[in-house]
Design brief:
disordered C terminus; alpha+beta; 4-stranded antiparallel beta sheet; rod-shaped
């Protein structure tokens, strides 16, 4: 007998050896003798005597059928595979319904057509590029424009290298100025501790102060040069390359449809092929017009870029050269003139000692 029999369960056992019957199926008559049964209360068997002369009455089981009461707050409607009712602000765009009140995440046919068209076109253009690389397809070439584009790519690399070195120069020179400032402060601090070296310490502190002041001017010139190069490389030239990229993409599209038309013209002239050819010719003309327009825009951008680059770089190179010469020759007046001419502002620093001498080289003579 299982040990987890609940309290009140029973099995009737005929202790006189006449057999064993399930208590729920046992029906007694009036003449049936009294029998003893083994019951299990909390897993402890016990023997009790019951009078079978009385008819068996099954225990009452509570009815948990359809409950009654007020369930006004319970949601109503059809509880099938999807809830029904008003979904308020739920998005419905791009969805269709299979049954009333059952939204289905299925795209509308127009959007499916757009995706299909986009996929086919990208496959066509990718196929054209691959065919060109393997020499299986012809490519439209404008030699003059292609040469100009290649020259611009090389120029961008060279100007990019110049920008990197100019930034390195700025960082190193800024560190040098920090060293001038620190050693000048040490000279001035040591004056009070070594009175016998006061004149020499003051002279060195003044020299470092002039170096620091003129160095701030050169640092401002270097920064202006770096900013101009950065604008040229990462803004002006980059904008031109965006136009070039659009032009090259339009050229691939133009060649893809051109080659498709050539293929259909050489194919058997069936009714289906004729209809496809007419459709492709309309698309081809649109792509050709777009390609020619972007070709013209690219040439215009290259012309403007060449003029702007020459004008800006000529001015910046002259400024940079003049500032470097003025600084390393110790000509503070000339350096100030260069900064004023090109409207370069430098950070003002407080100098101790005499800084009226414009040339620190002349001061030490």
């Amino acid at each position: 007998m299982p040990s987890n029999t609940s309290m009140g369960s029973y099995v009737d056992v005929n202790l006189d050896g006449s057999g064993m019957n399930n208590g729920s199926d046992h029906v007694t008559g009036a003449s049936a003798p009294a029998q003893k049964y083994v019951t299990f209360d909390d897993d402890i068997p016990s023997t009790r005597t019951y009078d079978n002369s009385q008819p068996f009455t099954a225990p009452t089981v509570p009815n948990y059928g359809n409950p009654t009461g007020n369930y006004s707050n319970a949601p109503s409607g059809n509880y099938g595979n999807a809830p029904s009712g008003n979904y308020g602000n739920a998005p419905t765009e791009g969805m269709v319904t299979q049954n009333a009140g059952q939204p289905c995440l299925t795209m509308e046919p127009p959007k499916l057509e757009q995706i299909k068209k986009w996929t086919v076109q990208n496959y066509k253009f990718t196929k054209q590029l691959v065919s060109e690389k393997f020499g299986h397809s012809t490519k439209t070439v404008d030699k003059e424009l292609d040469v100009r584009i290649e020259e611009l790519r090389l120029s961008k690399v060279q100007y990019g290298n110049m920008l990197r070195e100019a930034r390195s120069m700025y960082a190193r020179f800024e560190a040098l100025l920090t060293t001038h400032r620190n050693i000048r402060a040490q000279f001035q601090t040591l004056i009070s501790h070594a009175p016998e070296l006061q004149d020499q310490l003051q002279a060195n502190a003044t020299t470092q102060s002039i170096l620091e002041k003129n160095g701030e001017g050169l640092l401002g010139a270097i920064k202006t040069f770096v900013d101009s190069l950065n604008t040229l490389v990462n803004v002006t030239i980059q904008d031109t390359f965006l136009t070039i990229k659009n032009y090259e993409n339009s050229r691939v599209e133009y060649d893809a449809y051109r080659n498709d038309i050539n293929t259909l013209q050489n194919a058997p002239q069936t009714e289906s092929n004729k209809n496809k050819l007419l459709e492709l010719q309309v698309i081809f003309e649109n792509r050709k017009e777009k390609w020619e327009k972007l070709k013209s825009d690219t040439n215009t951008k290259l012309d403007l870029l060449g003029e702007n680059r020459s004008m800006v770089m000529k001015s910046q190179l002259e400024m940079f050269n003049s500032a470097v010469i003025a600084y390393f020759s110790g000509n503070g007046d000339k350096l100030s003139e260069v900064l004023a001419e090109y409207h370069i502002k430098t950070k003002k620093i407080s100098d101790e000692g005499d800084t009226t001498t414009n040339s620190f080289l002349a001061r030490n003579e």
